[in-house]
């Protein structure tokens, strides 16, 4: 572990820092409207418990953001973080064509950024992501302050979309 760098605190976006409930209806119909789902993300209200935890963690840690959102949503995501006063931090996103489950893609990124750095915590709402990270030895804080949906869970695990 490098001793001259602050530890990392890694935060998910959807239903951890941002309240995505208002757009989940796009995933509850067939066919799912992924473009509309992601286009509505800039209107997500912040989730105060997640934002407060991120601001608190930034006192001791370097903040990183780890989302299952596709790369094409980068600018909207960065704008949202800035607009809501979240700390600056590198944003790790899914490739536009990557459809692997979130528990696979996020763990891959965690392992990569954790080489030579302490990952003090991962904060995420996806139970399967949390379980995979804990099994791999990461400290996890479950973001249980938002009400998720079955449609979003299916999207994360079965379709590799968020």
From TrEMBL:
<dbReference type="InterPro" id="IPR056782">
    <property type="entry name" value="HAD_PNKP"/>
</dbReference>
<protein>
    <recommendedName>
        <fullName>Polynucleotide kinase PNKP phosphatase domain-containing protein</fullName>
    </recommendedName>
</protein>
<dbReference type="InterPro" id="IPR036412">
    <property type="entry name" value="HAD-like_sf"/>
</dbReference>
<dbReference type="InterPro" id="IPR023214">
    <property type="entry name" value="HAD_sf"/>
</dbReference>
<dbReference type="Pfam" id="PF25109">
    <property type="entry name" value="HAD_PNKP"/>
</dbReference>
<feature type="domain" description="Polynucleotide kinase PNKP phosphatase">
    <location>
        <begin position="10"/>
        <end position="141"/>
    </location>
</feature>
């Amino acid at each position: 572990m490098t001793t001259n760098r602050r530890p990392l605190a890694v935060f998910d976006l959807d239903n951890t820092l941002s309240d995505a409930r208002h757009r989940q209806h796009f995933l509850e119909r067939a066919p799912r409207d992924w473009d509309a789902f992601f286009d509505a993300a800039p209107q997500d209200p912040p989730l105060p418990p997640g934002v407060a935890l991120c601001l608190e963690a930034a006192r001791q840690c370097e903040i990183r953001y780890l989302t299952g959102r596709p790369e094409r949503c980068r600018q909207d995501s960065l704008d949202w973080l800035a607009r809501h006063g979240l700390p600056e931090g590198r944003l790790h996103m899914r490739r536009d064509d990557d459809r692997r489950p979130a528990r696979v893609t996020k763990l891959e990124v965690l392992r990569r950024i954790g080489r030579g750095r302490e990952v003090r915590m991962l904060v995420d709402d996806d139970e399967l992501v949390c379980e995979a990270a804990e099994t791999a030895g990461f400290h996890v804080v479950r973001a249980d302050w938002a009400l998720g949906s079955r449609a979003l869970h299916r999207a994360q695990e079965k379709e590799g979309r968020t």
